[in-house]
Write a structure and sequence with these properties.
By secondary structure, this protein is of the alpha+beta class. Helices cover 31% and strands 35% of the residues.
Length: 142
């Protein structure tokens, strides 16, 4: 197991999705689902971007990640879950967030992964700034 992913994390370095999957893998789990949020070349409003910046209230965000995990374990007792979010300056193509869920069955893994990313976006104190090709920048609401 990758030591970094023994628990949920806020990181400044690139996220390795294979290490994240290894962290949740157990012999009991037959399904592993990974969601990767990647910096794309265009903003939601179709403006071209050069990259993104993320900031977080780290201790509060980690508390939210833990609460999401507890909620999922109440629903799926055997779920293994990791949430990792990157902060700092990211370029197009880099992974900003990764959620990995492992469960005995694929349906539980898919449901857990989807719930985790939706709840993270709604509840975690993490902020994104888009940097546009014209030199402007804008903080975006989740």
């Amino acid at each position: 197991m990758h030591a970094l992913f023994e628990r949920d994390a806020i990181v400044r370095e690139c996220i390795d999705p294979r290490a994240l999957e290894d962290a949740v893998r157990t012999d009991e789990c037959g399904g592993i689902v990974t969601f990767l949020g990647v910096v794309r070349e265009r903003a939601q409003d179709d403006r071209p971007v050069t990259g993104l910046s993320y900031e977080a209230h780290e201790s509060m965000a980690l508390d939210v990640f833990a609460a999401i995990g507890e909620e999922l374990r109440a629903r799926f007792p055997k779920i293994q879950l990791r949430i990792v979010h990157r902060v700092g300056e990211l370029r197009i193509g880099e992974i900003a967030v990764a959620v990995c869920a492992a469960a005995p069955h694929r349906g539980e893994a898919f449901d857990a992964c989807e719930y985790a990313i939706e709840q993270l976006k709604a509840r975690a104190p993490i902020w994104k700034k888009e940097h546009y090709t014209d030199g402007a920048g804008e903080w975006i609401e989740n």
